[in-house]
Specification:
Elements: H1 4-10, H2 14-26, H3 31-50, H4 56-80, E1 88-93, H5 101-112, E2 116-119, H6 126-136, E3 140-144, H7 150-163, E4 171-175, H8 181-187, E5 191-193, H9 196-206
Length: 207
């Protein structure tokens, strides 16, 4: 039944979640819908973390469960994805923020959709983004952040890219937490994505 996987992930029932993911895949369910259910489960976990029901160990454990599920469905997603777009994309969680669950889902979805992804990790200073753009010539940069303090870091990163004379060479998308159109304007990004699929469609549009 729909929603079972979401609940199993939200309740941190690892074995049940993996069993359901395999079952759904074997029965021919669209791997994207399995990922969507998983994302909904992670959203519930994020809310439980915010309201103090879950703590950091639960958050780390949930990320491991998600990683295992994505490994199960990755081959099917790759078959499902269109031909390689051969686009390059740099992504990282901005300085001062160490949240990586949302970023990891975006990295995963870009990867299975044929992008070459340079994942800079978390708490990434602006200069590191600048250096990676110079090194790879990637035309797309994704800035991730969950905390409100990330908004200033996003703005500083965009300004650093501009100061390095690279702003007109890249398209910048931001995502995570409470990101909306006002934050996009504040940061000076080209677009924002509410979820991983939106990030993929933005990247494909820019390539």
């Amino acid at each position: 039944m729909s929603g079972e996987l979401t609940k199993a992930i939200a309740d941190l029932e690892e074995n049940e979640a993996l069993r359901l993911a395999r079952e759904k895949l074997d029965s021919g369910e669209d791997p994207k819908s399995i990922l969507e259910e998983s994302r909904n489960g992670m959203e519930i976990i994020g809310n439980r973390f915010s309201d103090g029901t879950y703590f950091l160990p639960e958050l780390i454990y949930s990320a491991e469960i998600l990683k295992e599920i994505t490994e199960i469905i990755k081959p099917a997603l790759k078959e499902d994805a269109q031909a390689k777009t051969s686009g390059k994309c740099i992504i990282g969680t901005v300085a001062g923020d160490i949240h990586d669950i949302g970023k990891d889902i975006v990295v995963f979805m870009l990867d299975v959709n044929g992008f070459e992804v340079f994942d800079l990790g978390v708490d990434v200073p602006p200069q590191k983004f600048v250096d990676k753009i110079k090194e790879t010539d990637a035309p797309i940069v994704g800035l991730s952040g969950f905390l409100t303090l990330a908004f200033d870091s996003m703005k500083e990163t965009v300004e650093a890219i501009k100061a390095a004379g690279l702003r007109d060479k890249v398209k910048i998308m931001i995502g995570g937490g409470q990101i909306d159109e006002d934050i996009r304007k504040y940061a000076g990004a080209d677009a924002y994505g509410q979820d991983a699929m939106k990030a993929v469609s933005l990247a494909k549009g820019w390539i």
